[in-house]
Amino acid sequence: MSKRSKLDHMRGRRGTVGLSLALAAVVVALVPTGTAYAADKSAPGVTPTSITVGTISTQTGTLAANSSGLIYGERAYFKYVNAQGGVNGRKIDYKYALDDGGNPTTFNQLANTLINQDHVFAVTGVATIFFSPNLFVESGIPTYGYNVTNNWAGPPNLFAAGGSVQYYPAGAAEFAYLARRTQSKPSIAILAYGVAASADACQAAENALKKGGYDVSYVDLKINYPGSTVATDVQRMKQAGSNFVLSCMDVQGNVTMARAIHQYGLNAKQLWLNGNDVSTLKANKNLMQGVYFATYHVPFTAPARLYPGLKLYLDQMHKYEPKHEYDEIAIQGWESAALFVQGVKAAGNDLTWANVVKKTNAITSFTASGLTTPVNWSVGGHHGHAPPYCVAYIVAKGTQYKPVFNKGQNVFNCFKSANTRAKPVFPLPPGTPTPHHS
């Protein structure tokens, strides 16, 4: 039976974020073409005073930790907007938060329910590795959410937080820079699970790093989930002389790897693409000291008084969703909600699916009010990423993640190209969040 409930009855575990999640081993069933849509495509869910929206995410089951936080960031943003009077006089009615339970069949059923039964105006947050875009694309409904794999790329009505394309070459350039900053002669090991959502990013990194002349001393992209055999990899990395480890595993695999690194005395810097979460650090403090992460929003521990976008996020999350204030998935929900609201505001009184999609795709520098690196939806949002490529590096110190490798109080490093030998550029490109000195 489909799991379906009102938002206020939904509860879930906190999530972790990264460029890739390693659990998407199930092939998603596609929705047949020719599906009938009962909703009025011009403006379903819209009244003179409200706009009804909904979402589908994995809130229960073994995969919930990777996506459940999205709804809390969305909810906080919509409550903040409604407290300001809504959007063009209409309040956002975040009425439906549906749980697919980690089941692709359930996800497709719920997608049909939102569009054909609930008649929502938009799906403002999809957080599930089972995202099958067919129904959303066929209907044309504005759709927003958390991008795990490239199934968001292409269609103009799909808006994933940070851009709908996983542009792996840019990631490789960022990883290479970190390796150079932390090791005089980096000898790089690369680890991933043997599924596309994990291995794709690390495979692209391997190819780009080798092409750039880096010493890639050890690679295993076929680790079985949940990484219980990674200790063998650590021993082999030590034998190979690896001193920098790039991991595309999830937090469970990363913690297992860190434990083995300590056990076998491997002297290597670590870059995790998943696990940037305060509760994870507190639970694994000894294992995670000195572990690096790449993030694409102003880090939580940056000086909030200097970054208005971060201050707004923290203030409103503390007010409305305090348990999820420092949740890396919740902040993606906040971004998704902010992008939707910006598109609705630009659409004005011509509030239709097509016009909201059109207006959103006209946004040339979306930053969620200075919280994230800029996304140009008119150029690269759906089909690729146009430079600059900006990243904030953070490192685990004590029980906090501290920004590193910035210039002055700027937290971002931006690159003009995806070349793995590229160096950051200053001053930062227009649109990149910069500190407002007090």
Instruction: Label the structural class.
Output: alpha/beta
Summed over residues and divided by their number, the pLDDT gives a mean of 87
| Helix and strand sequence | EEHEHEHEEHEHEHEHEHHEHHHEEE
Looking at how many chains there are and whether they match, the oligomeric state comes to single chain
Tell me, briefly, the overall form: globular
CATH topology of one domain: Rossmann fold
- The CATH superfamily of one domain is identified as Response regulator
The N- and C-terminal alpha carbons lie at a distance of 55 Å
Strand content: 15-25%
CATH top level of one domain?
Alpha Beta
The helix fraction, in percent, is 25-40%
Q: Compute the gyration radius: what is it?
A: 21 Å
Question: Sheet bearing the most strands, described?
Answer: 8 strands, mixed
Overall CATH architecture of one domain: 3-Layer(aba) Sandwich
Query: How many distinct helices?
Result: 12
Strand runs, count: 14
**Uncertain residue segments:** 1-40
